[in-house]
Known about the structure:
Radius of gyration of chain B: 15 Å
Number of helices of chain B: 5
Number of strands of chain B: 5
Distance between the termini of chain A: 64 Å
Number of strands of chain A: 29
Distance between the termini of chain B: 49 Å
Strand content of chain A: 15-25%
Structural class of chain B: alpha+beta
Shape of chain A: globular
Helix content of chain A: 25-40%
Oligomer: heterodimer
Amino acid sequence: MSERGVGASIPRKEDDRFLMGAGQYVPDVQAPGLWHAAFRRAEIAHGRLISVRSPAVAAGRVFTAADMADIRPIRSIASFPGFKGSDFPVLAKEKVRHVGEPIAIAVAPTRAEAEDIADEIEVAYEELPAVVDLAAARSPESARVHDGWTDNLVCRTSFENGDLEAAKAAAAHSIVRRYKMARQTPFPMEGRGALAQYDGRLDELVVWMSHQLPHPMQRGIAHFLGLEINRVRVICPDVGGGFGLKTFLDGETLAVAWTSLRLDRPIKWVQDRFEHLVTDADCRDHEYSIAVHADADGRILGIECECVVDAGAYSPWPWPVGVEAATGVGNLAGPYDVGALHGRSVTVCTNKPASQPYRGVARPGACFTDELALDSLARRVGREPWEVRLDNLVAPAQMPYDNVARKHLDSGDYPEAFRRCVAAIDPAAVRERQKTPEPDGRLIGVGFAAFYEQTAYGTGPFGYSAWGIELVPGMEMATVKLTADGGLWASVGIQSHGQGLETSLAQVAASELGIDPDRVAIRHGDTATAYAGTGTYASRSIVVAGGAVAQGCRLLAPRLARIGAHLLQARVEDVTVAAAAVIGPGGSVSFAEIAEAFYHHPENLPDDTDRDGLTVTAGYNDKVHGGVFGFGAHGAVIALDPETGRIEILDYAIVDDCGTRVNPMLVKGQVVGGYAQGIGNALYEESPYDANGQPLAVTLADYHVPAAPMVPDPRYGYMESPSPYSTMGIKGVGESGAIGPPAAIGNAVNDALRVYGVEISETPITPRRVFAALARAGVR
Amino acid sequence: MTGIALTLNGEAVAAEVAPRLSLADFVRDRQGLTGTHIACEQGVCGACTLMVDGRPVRSCITLAVMADGAEVRTVEGWAGDPVMATIRDCFKRSHAVQCGYCTPGMLATAHDIVTRLPGADRARIRHELAGNLCRCTGYVGIVDAIEAALREVHG
């Protein structure tokens, strides 16, 4: 085991280039003869396209859907009952269905000139009533987003497990609540973007994309443009954050690729912030109705719920809408020992951008819902919420535990992790403080949240037995080879865009072979170097690519041992592979010496040297198809100013368990980074629309991203409960930090408001919503 | 087109620029210095922050013509600066970098904090960082790094 391998907080290999300003993102990529693209976008939310006229001077520089008739329809599939698919237009055809929908692409030598041309394109519409409000969208009188549809419902799902009637009959209390989580944007610092260029020598279209899924994009671009996969290469270079946004095939990229082929010229499009805030206001936007049935002490007996998701206008590829709502229902039982769960989901089509998964997918909303309802239950039964939670959490003796939503919770000591979080917050001290009015008139509140994080999903949820969608993960590959100078090179199908996987995957190889991580090169984000994979999403990469790299090393080791033993004149049974060498009874040979023999002096090799060479392509073999489960406990203390509605986070504690931590420093970075996004979700970020479907937060003056003063240092603790199923017991951790904050902060706010007998039920918890709650109490 | 002459990373540069060209686009597209990142183009997020005459400036809302006669320093131009070397080292040790997109702007602001405010505590560091958004780190590693750099530079 290398000291710098799994478990070591080594600094990141990728930092050197970023700190020198030498990272290379799509906007930085250059090509000879490069032209830039700008898009003319819909100014209205819903309307029939009457005409699109480009200025005469722009002949050959503007293209519309009519020009791109040879692009195959993009249709995302799902097996949800009654699922209605909708073609995802590259550029708007016949109708526009949300503000910002691209209508035409304009190209020019500079972006400024391309924008000038785009501005001069004249678009005439027949405006139609916009479908904006969820309830109105469901009424039979509503306008239809898609003309051929009988209503605006995309699909309904339902889930039933356990005896709900018995739970209701036995219940002493039933808490019935409605909650809402607002629409927002994922807001990576770098927006979407693409550069497409035809390589005549290779007869290959090269597409640089700011993206998380290189291989699925290669497949999609090839298919929709009618090319063989051999003729498309996708490169995802340094990517300035993704958070789920960069997991679908966007129309802009296909339009850029098509135009570059049409003009035989490299074309680049870089999304600007206005475009991001308008077209990528595409995540969250859930409404929940929940009934929690419990006994007199607050033990949960059964849960009923409905999750309604505003999915926007289209189903993107490869993720159809519907997944979001199904995920919401599937997580509403939380990490608790619950006997019955009956859930329904409804996915509704509206004139807003197409719904996308964002860090946590629906879990932050589900957690907000079940955790706020649990605190309401605790108040009803007259107990402290943290005590009620401890009574309901799945106990370690029950592990592995198949929960009521058929999640196989594989390991962990949930009560102990939660107790540590409670101890860090010390709610008894908060209760003491609350007995005396604050000198500044503010109200103090304390709240907690507990959740599991389902990571590295396999075929289970995605496959035909459940969601039946286009992209089913489950096989993730790595190629590992010994280089001619004794270093290690590994390529993977995942894509690292902030997670530090160039470092953490090198640490996995270091632990397997004893090689220093500095001598391990990890290559990702390029379909030409990686064999296969589905990319980075769903907190999967360190689990699946880590497993694949480890497996590659394990298959490579015996080949190294055979050559090493021969060079040492030892029997292969008597040698071991460690410390980047093959070690025998009487000495050792380094990987460099073995590589020298294999690549340059085959006369020194044994006759039975493996003809497969010193390279292995291996896959991660997931033993469970539903993924491996981490756990998180969050606690918050807040001060609420009834005069201004402002909420300040006074204290925040996190105890997280992601199994074996490959690089503890990077794990903490993921958790704390997620926590900051969770604060945005809880208190600040919202993409509202007016009744005409016009977005109201299209600049950073309206859309509030947490800045440093809004993110206090959390107190961070961890446990390590290795998964019995994954390589080295690793669990994913990318989304965990973002799941808990809306619930923990929401519960703290409701604890502060309890003196008035009111609760908040919507994120973000803005001053306006605080005032509305106070008004309900007759305070304002 | 307007003629400008400035010092860019220690070297004299003269260019003809369109009046509407931003300083960010000038250093990126005309000078090939792509370390300066553009993320909001409205002067809020701070990703494009660089130094003009020793002060941090948002290059997305500064016109190239406004830099006429100025001394401009981008993330590529800190060779030989011991304070920046310390800051970079602290950023690496404190895990202050994830996707790297906000990093060049953060480094410019960090250099300003470390040189201008030797006694800054964590709250002051956070206040000074309010004009630089980071979506990945939750700022904790960045504040840690600047705190460590202040200690190392000023003792």
